[in-house]
Amino acid sequence: MRAEVITIGDELLIGQVVDTNSAWIAQKLNEQGIELYQITSVHDSREHIIAALDEAFGRVDVVLTTGGLGPTKDDITKHVLCEYFGTHLIEDARVRAHVERLYADRPDVLNRLTATQWMVPERAEILENRVGSAPLMVFHKDGKILASMPGVPYEMKIAMEEQILPYIGRTTASIIHKTLQVNGISESALAILLEEYENSMPSSLHLAYLPKDGIIRLRLSAYGDCSEAEMAQWFERLKELTADYLVAETDEPLEMVLGRLLTARHQTIATAESCTGGKLASLLSKHPGSSAFYFGSIVSYDNSVKEQLLSVPQEMIQTHGVVSEEVVKVMASTVRKQIGADFAIATSGIAGPTGGSEAKPVGTVWIGWSTPTETYAECFHLGKLREQITDRACIKALVKMIKIVRESK
After folding, report:
1. What is the model's pTM?
2. Cβ distance 403 to 378 under 8 Å?
3. How far apart are CA 236 and CA 227, in angstroms?
4. What's the farthest any 2 CA atoms get from each other in the chain?
5. H or E element at residue 378
6. How far apart are CA 243 and CA 26, in angstroms?
7. For the chain, how are helix, strand and coil distributed in percent, rounded to 5?
8. Buried b (16+ CB within 10 A) or exposed e, 16-33
9. Which of 50, 130, 284, 396 is the most buried (most CB within 10 A)?
């Protein structure tokens, strides 16, 4: 079964709003064993919407639309769908009762525009939108389905999980994805390493290389008649072949991999950041449960903070420079002891675009890792673009920390 997502709204096409809905929907469809064939974004334009619907129904079984269901004049999706499916709007008593309950404590919202929300296409099957006023509409066309949902992300997610996906139901054709993450080998070298493996794979399996900032995700996908047992065997073989470079056996963010590892061992970590400016702290604290392993950070952007809070001697900075092995080692060791964590990471570098020199060009980053028994440091050259440098520094820091924790007793 194939699906297409059509996102509707001028705001998406002028960059005013970022389309996060499509990526989330794609993940949920894959979990259902439904292949997402295409994502299309269109203007709030009758002609554009109708053309997109015609094209989508010509190539997929399920069409999912988001956006354009509000009560204002620019929200035209419901009217265009009426025209497309040859129907008209009627009042739905259940939707009206729901909207009135929804705004019972906000009577100022119940006006003539809100009243348009309980007008629904007569030929559509109406599903409840538990958290919003726009009804969920399902249409059928030549054995195919169109489901129309709001564009507000939290409304769309609840609609998908509670109504739309159960409505579509599980398909017999399944897609299974398993992903592992590797580091320390180039994409081309990895492809050579896995050449024989790929050549021997059955046609029901596919291996994708997904590189980003030093990490390569290897996604093994099974389609059709490939059993879970067969998939598991091929995935185990893939892990064996990449064992020297393996960072994680899941598609989780690296900070989650590290967090699970630390939590399982009842261990903790702290950070001291200069060039990454708190980005590591943000990553390590962004997921639920992070308080079990992440203690805190000192963002020591200015040298005075390094000296006063991280005990970096002024003469050390004058002799070796703030971007140096000596400085990050002191930063890492001090923050670990001051905050009382088992492990610590420290970063100091030149993120640019200015500040580089011939000896230490833009992109030079020193990273330090401290354990109860030892403190390490390593220098990296991570490119020329500021955001790229800080992102890569965080990945380098996390990859090494995962290995250190795994190897520690």
Report:
1. 0.71
2. no
3. 14
4. 80
5. strand 375-381
6. 30
7. 40, 25, 35
8. ebebebbeebbebbbebe
9. 284
Do 128 and 105 contact (CB within 8 A), yes or no? Answer: no
Query: Domain residues of the chain, as ranges?
Result: 2-168, 175-248, 254-407
Q: What is the CATH number of domain 2-168?
A: 3.40.980.10
Residue 336 to residue 227: CA distance in whole angstroms:
47
Give the C-alpha separation, 324 to 365, whole Å: 8
Residue 174 pLDDT grade (very low, low, confident, very high; cuts 50, 70, 90): low
Give the separation between CA 253 and CA 287, rounded to whole angstroms: 10
Backbone phi, psi, residue 33, to 5°? 80, 25
CATH number of 254-407: 3.90.950.20
Average of pLDDT values for 51-60? 96
DSSP symbols for 237-262: HHHHHTTTTEEESSSS-HHHHHHHHH
Tokens in use for 371?
């354990």
- The per-residue pLDDT for 109 is 77
pLDDT band at 106 (very low <50, low <70, confident <90, very high): confident
What number of residues does the chain have?
Answer: 409
What pairs with residue 42 in β-bridges? 8
CATH number 1.10.10.10 given to 175-248: no
Whole-angstrom Cα distance, residue 254 to residue 251? 9
Instruction: Give the Cα separation of 319 and 122 in Å (integer).
Output: 79
One fold for 2-168 and 254-407: no
Tell me the per-residue pLDDT of 334-356, one tens digit each, with 9 for 90 and over: 999 999 999 999 999 999 999 99
To the nearest 10°, the Cα dihedral for 52, 57, 62, 67? 20
Mean pLDDT, rounded, for 240-266: 96
Phi, psi dihedrals of residue 70, rounded to the nearest 5°:
-75, 180
**pLDDT value of position 104:** 83
136-141 and 246-248 beta bridge pairing: unpaired
d(CA 56, CA 226): 28
